[in-house]
Amino acid sequence: TSQEVAIELVKTCYLGEADGDGIHLLGALAGNVLRVSPPMTMTEAEAETSIALLNRLCVKLAEQLQGATASA
Asked: What is the pLDDT of residues 12-62, one digit of tens each?
């Protein structure tokens, strides 16, 4: 379900990448909406880096979910 995917994405972002970079999301709102609360002092470069990380983590989770679906 969309709620399960949202919860898994929050976990995936929290755990982050092997180098330790991760994103702390506020959790799934209403089960299927991601809540992001960036710091007010974030630079444009930091925002771009964070969005790129979020994209990589979304792709990683999508690949994991597709693999799980294919083997089920």
From this structure: 999 999 998 999 888 777 777 888 888 889 999 999 999 999 999 999 999
Of the chain, the end-to-end C-alpha distance in Å amounts to 15
- The parent domain of residue 9 ranges over 2-71
- On whether the pTM is more than 0.85, the answer is no
CB atoms within 10 A of CB 56: 13
> Based on the structure, what is the number of domains in the chain?
1
Q: How far is CA 9 from the centre of its chain?
A: 4
Cα-Cα-Cα-Cα torsion 42, 33, 30, 63, nearest 10 degrees, comes to -120
Query: How many residues does this entry show for the chain?
Result: 72
